[in-house]
């Protein structure tokens, strides 16, 4: 298997202008993901886990290190130095991100959100409509909500929609930031089913989880974070 993502010496600082100082969020982080792998990051809240994903996705710019990604279209690219246009392309076509929060246009329905994600991949309207209904049904989102605005949804409903929108695109690299945080057991199992399906289809994943039981039999490798750095790692695959 070829390496899809390689992070070297990743360091992220935040400026506290009102205090005139900097704080270090993560320090000297190294990660390597091969194609088709699922790597999990664990650790206490505030240890820097989400910061890693946001640096990969381009939400945060870093002070030190490199984030090498092997794009299907753009070739080997350092995401830490990618242009806004390159990052936008990769987000639309290759890299998915699921967070605990759903940020959407206020007058866009659940159906429109998922359908638009599929259309961005170049599929036609008929297929997009079919796949939209399929994944909304999979996550057991009430059909009465499909043409409603997500601003009226509960926290769990918003999270299920957010997961559906990211997973329906079947990205090459999927970043998961606590995707099951506020879900009940049945909904977690629906997420797990799709993760397993995407893994079979070749999607590479990097996920953050507090629910360690959920990660059983999913992860190939686990990194544990403490105070912005990895304290230890565990390999679950046989050589």
Structural notes for this entry:
This protein is of the alpha/beta class. It has a single domain (3-235), classed as P-loop containing nucleotide triphosphate hydrolases (Rossmann fold), CATH 3.40.50. Helix content is 32%, strand content 31%. It contains 7 helices and 10 strands. The chain has helices at 49-57, 84-93, 110-119, 125-138, 155-167, 185-200, 212-215; strands at residues 3-16, 21-34, 38-43, 64-71, 75-78, 95-98, 173-177, 204-208, 221-226, 229-235. The strands form 2 sheets. A 6-stranded mixed beta sheet has the order 6-7-8-3-9-10, sandwiched between helices. Strand 9 (221-226) and strand 10 form a beta hairpin. Helix 3 (110-119) packs across helix 4 (125-138) and helix 3 packs parallel to helix 5 (155-167). The longest helix has 16 residues, at 185-200.
CATH level 1 name: Alpha Beta
SS strand fraction? 25-35%
The CATH architecture classification is 3-Layer(aba) Sandwich
Largest sheet: 6 strands, mixed
Structural category: alpha/beta
Please estimate the helix content.
Answer: 25-40%
**In CATH, what is the homologous superfamily?**
P-loop containing nucleotide triphosphate hydrolases
Low-confidence spans: none
Q: What multimeric state do the chains show? A: single chain
Q: From the alpha-carbon coordinates, what is the Rg to the nearest angstrom?
A: 18 Å
Count of discrete alpha- or pi-helical segments spanning 4 or more residues: 7
- Using the coordinates shown, work out and report the CATH topology: Rossmann fold
- Number of beta strands: 10
Terminal Cα separation, in Å? 13 Å
- The ordered H/E elements are EEEHEEHEHHHEHEHEE
Q: How do the strands line up in the largest sheet?
A: 6-7-8-3-9-10
* Dominant shape: globular
Number of domains: 1
Q: Average pLDDT value? A: 88
